[in-house]
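Propose amino acids for all 157 sites.
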């Protein structure tokens, strides 16, 4: 078995894609990360059907990316809003990578619709791949893949 010849069942990318299932999960995480946190706000912002949003939120909650937090407006029943968990916040760089790729390879007529900057200093935020020694790694050119035989064996494949 070579370095990339392994069953999809043990592939982390395949498991992650299976969890998300469709574009809605990515967009829901994006919006919750941008402080759009209530069910009706998410519906209005995304233009998503209620049943689809309910199912996708349930999956994200069940897998620990989003947590429910109760709130009550005066004179109304208790409801929940959604917040990213640590695992959900750890997914933000994936969303930034998707955004950066889209800005570069699928630009809109007016350019990038959003820019990211560090709240602390105001400088632009971007992503880089770096090795543990601090070297910048060029994607697709300088990455060696090594099969973890124990993971494959542990999956019973």
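Proposal:
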């Amino acid at each position: 078995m070579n370095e990339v010849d392994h069953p999809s069942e043990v592939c982390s990318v395949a498991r992650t894609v299976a969890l998300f299932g469709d574009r809605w999960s990515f967009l829901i995480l994006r919006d919750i990360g941008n402080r759009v946190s209530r069910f009706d706000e998410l519906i209005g912002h995304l233009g998503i059907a209620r049943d689809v949003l309910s199912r996708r939120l349930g999956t994200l909650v069940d897998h620990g990316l989003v947590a429910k937090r109760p709130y009550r407006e005066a004179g109304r029943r208790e409801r929940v809003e959604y917040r990213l968990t640590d695992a959900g916040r750890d997914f933000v760089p994936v969303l930034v990578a998707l955004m950066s790729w889209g800005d570069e390879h699928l630009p809109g007529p007016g350019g990038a619709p959003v820019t990211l900057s560090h709240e602390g200093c105001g400088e632009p935020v971007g992503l880089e791949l770096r090795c543990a020694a601090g070297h910048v790694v060029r994607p697709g050119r300088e990455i060696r893949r090594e099969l973890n035989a124990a993971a494959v064996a542990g999956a019973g494949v």
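The chain is about 40% helix and 10% strand. The longest strand covers residues 66-71.
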